[in-house]
Amino acid sequence: MTVEDGALLLGAALTLLGYALVVVAGFRREFLWGVINLVPGVSLAFVLLHLRRARLGFIVSLMGLVVVAAALYGGADRTVEEKLAQHDIGLDIQMPVTRPWDEELPNQALVRQIEEETGEPLEIIEFDPFGPSTARPLPPAESFRLAPDGQRVQRAYREAIAAEWGELEGERVRLTLAGGAVREGNLIAVTGRSLFVQQVVQGGHVAFEYRRDDVRRMEVWDVEGASPRVQPRPDPVEELPEPEVIFEELQTTEE
């Protein structure tokens, strides 16, 4: 049970307790008022006319309603909807205010599509390339290429050949540097001498430059079993020199 669920139960208990106190106060005032107070909503008339007698129950009920509202705002509404759905009761609790997690992100549809393809929820992980942690961040949404509708694909790192490095700008890559250090990030630029990789650090994004000569291996996050984006260049074939002419054409003369 979460804190929100516990607060929901506490708020509901306070609300019922306060309502029961109002009903008891009604019976003490007059039997007819006690019967009237048994009808939810109508008991407000007794509270307005006999506030002095009903104030304790009214205050307790009001406190319970505040706790229930806070619990629903904190996320207990999902628990209520799930419990009712188990009994085939469809209920969508609408919040009067928008909560932070209810706002649609610009790439919300893309995130949901990726989660359906991978079968796992995406997580936002702060990654410090110079930190002692060995945890690897999940590839960001920008590195995914959606598959055709209805087709599920598996993705994994594959080794990228040098000829295709220039075609991988914007992709998630993993570099193995001289000395064995591993760096992950988004490849944002490729030049003849350097690679520029954007990595997430605390406070934002930083682009790091790595010399081509220091990169021992590059891997790209791609569809499992995918081929390189470009075909490897064939090794140049050394041309053999033309053979020297040994025999010259004989010229015959007519006698």
Description:
- With 255 residues, this protein is an alpha+beta fold.
- The chain has helices at 3-29, 31-37, 43-49, 51-85, 108-118, and strands at residues 155-159, 172-177, 182-190, 194-201, 204-211, 215-223.
- It contains five helices and six strands; from the N terminus they run αααααββββββ.
- Helix 1 (3-29) runs antiparallel to helix 2, helix 1 (3-29) runs antiparallel to helix 4 (51-85) and helix 3 (43-49) packs antiparallel against helix 4 (51-85).
- The longest helix has 35 residues, at 51-85.
- The termini are far apart.
- Mean pLDDT is 76; it is low at 125-144.
Which helices and strands occur, and which strands form pairs?
Elements: H1 3-29, H2 31-37, H3 43-49, H4 51-85, H5 108-118, E1 155-159, E2 172-177, E3 182-190, E4 194-201, E5 204-211, E6 215-223
Antiparallel strand pairs: 1-6, 2-3, 2-6, 3-4, 4-5
Mean pLDDT: 76
**Hey, roughly how much beta strand do the residues contain?**
15-25%
What general outline do the C-alpha atoms trace? rod-shaped
Helix percent reads 25-40%
Number of helices: 5
Number of strands: 6
* Biggest β-sheet: strands ordered side by side in the sheet: 1-6-2-3-4-5
Structural class: alpha+beta
What does the largest sheet look like? 6 strands, antiparallel
Low-confidence stretches: 125-144
